[in-house]
Amino acid sequence: MRQRAPRFLSLRWFPLDENMGAPYTRKMAGLPKSLRKTEQRLLTAARDGVWLDLRVGDPKKDDPANGANWPVSRTIRAEVIYHLLADRPNTRKVHAKGVRLFGARVEGQLDFESARLDRPMWLFGCYFAAPIIFQDAKAG
């Protein structure tokens, strides 16, 4: 009887050396058809596992209490963040470090009700137009 070679688990991840910092070009299911430049930058940062820092460097202008007046260049739609964290086919394209964001205005409501968050979410100094919903959400 012929013996088979042992099988080994092979994990595949995109090659960081050739893609690091390059704009994200693969289509993610469920995302808006036209992404804003800032949202495109978030996709790239999430793929590479790095922070996207949208702060301008002035503590008064960066205060989330003034976030309603922040320009579109600092705005990310809630649905983009949702699809990066809770939409199963897309979370595989996000680095294990998750979504890391500084100083963004999140437009719309982040509604994670009953969702499973497959990656970490770090949102510091951000302005939220609506409360974040985590009712019955699971992380893991």
Describe it.
- This protein is of the alpha/beta class and 140 residues long.
- It has five helices and eight strands.
- About 10% of the residues have low confidence.
Q: Which short descriptors sum up this protein?
A:
8 strands, alpha/beta, single chain, 16% strand, 3-stranded parallel beta sheet, 24% helix
User: How many strands appear in the DSSP assignment?
Assistant: 8
* Biggest β-sheet: strands ordered side by side in the sheet: 1-3-6
Low-confidence stretches: 6-19
Distance between the termini: 43 Å
Average pLDDT, to the nearest integer? 83
The total count of helices amounts to 5
What fraction, in percent, of the residue positions are helical? 10-25%
What's the helix-strand series?
HHEHEHHEEEEEE
What is the gyration radius calculated from CA atoms? 18 Å
**What would you call the shape?**
globular
User: Pairing-aware structural class of the strands and helices?
Assistant: alpha/beta
| Percent of residues in β-strands | 15-25%
Largest sheet: 3 strands, parallel
